[in-house]
Amino acid sequence: MAAQRTTTNARCLARRQRAHRIGFTLVELLVVIAIIGVLVALLLPAVQSARESARRSQCQSQLKQLALGCLNTHDVAGHFPTGGWGWFWTGDADRGYGEEQPGGWIYNILPFIEQAQLHQLSSDGQPDVITPQQRAGAARIIETPFPLIVCPSRRGTTTHAINPNLVNNFFNADPPAEAGRADYAANSGTWYNQGGPENSPGGGPSTLDDSDFRWLFLMLERRNNGDRLDGIMHQRSEISVARVTDGTSNTLMIGEKAHNAEQYETGESGGDNETWCTGFNNDVYRGMIGIYREGRAVPAAWLPISDVEQVRQIRDSAVFGRNFGSAHAAVWYAALCDGSVHGISYDADPLVLKSLANRADGGVVDFEQL
Question: For position 316, what pLDDT does the model report?
Answer without folding.
Answer: 47
